[in-house]
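Quick illustration for those who missed Monday's session on complexes.
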Amino acid sequence: MTTESVATTPTPQQKETKGGGYFVSNYPPFNFWSKDKVSAIHQALDNPGDPDTPLGLYLHIPFCRKRCHFCYYKVYTDKNSSEIRNYIDGMTHEMEMYAGKKVLGDRHLQYVYFGGGTPSFLSPHQLTNLVATLKSTLHWDRVEEVTFECEPGTLTEAKLEAIREIGVTRLSLGIENYDDHILEINGRAHRSPEIRRAYDFARSIGFPQINIDLIAGMIGETDENWTECVQRTLNLEPDSITIYQMEIPFNTTIYKEMKEKGETTAPVADWETKRRWVDEAFSALEERGYSISSAYTAVKNPETTRFVYRDSLWSGADMLALGVSSFGQFKGVHYQNEKDDGPYLGRVHKDEIPINRAHPMTEEEKLVREVILHFKKGHLDRGYFQDKFNVDIYERFKENFAEIQKEGYLTLNEDQAVLNRQGLLRVDTFLHSFFLPEHTPVGK
Ligand code: SF4
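Prediction with iron/sulfur cluster bound:
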């Protein structure tokens, strides 16, 4: 959620994995958000919100036990317990400052997302207190989904019970791999015995949805090990599985080491191999009855297993973001908080909402944003865009679609533009072609 290194790098047409981030998580790209647009978000906050627009809450917990070598998030691994307490107090005060804002009015939360970092780094006591304050400040009674990201090694039984107790419905386990050597050389803090222990206990206390995150192409990954990872995941029978293809953004430890050695190719599998691994995983999951619901996700039962956060946010929901470097949006205005904990806490303690930059979207940008994000699910509904934006996307993006069709990845049906499996596996490489010219790197 708090990555900086996205959507600014040209797509990886090359075979090898080079440095740079190409995964598109939002639009317009973050480097077009600016300090001089912060007044636009304050204006949005100070006016009534649309009661029909879903409202979400994102909380950024920026602490981790160790920094993974591929990590590009804003995280701290060296904070003591009083600094963590201070941070939570700061976030609580930040929430209180929003409480009287007109844009919230009487609106009820639809979803809550605890991201990081590692939310499960917090103690049961800290979590319980934090959520008690949030519940006393926001209407929480109609929440459809509460997602909580976890690092398996932080999950004691008491912690999992506290996480269930605060109302988490979707537990997301950052497993990434099951091989202890691969976990070790990639800088992960957890080990395989912790996975099974945490998973079994989480299941036994009845979380409605458990998601498992995997990464295809960590350093040291092999065909044999990947098959084993998929098999072990199938054995756990999670409700959903999210698989990312490893990329190496510029602010990762891996990239810094590559630079020091003068290397341009990352020490991970090439793109074709990573796509093949995801393809194999998707096929194995489909054989077990799972459905592929996006370029990254398989779900056991699409009727009951939803991902409200993703679907609402990608369709323009408002989202209140709390914590250092958090991203949110209200009434079509994107915003991000201060990127470092010093300025973040400094401003909160001065009773200032700590927003650092913003971007009010034009109608055209809103359309492109939704086309890009919805395409990650593998299809675009023509009628949806006609109804919402009064635009026929087949006409508006004729050339973009023709290009993808020429490569054999897309079919345009009467109602839907549908990517085939090979198209879905490389969808992020197409997305930059939809960017408006002013957001496209020169020469692309
Ligand atoms: S656990 Fe996640 S957020 Fe923390 S360092 Fe690793 S990848 Fe980054």
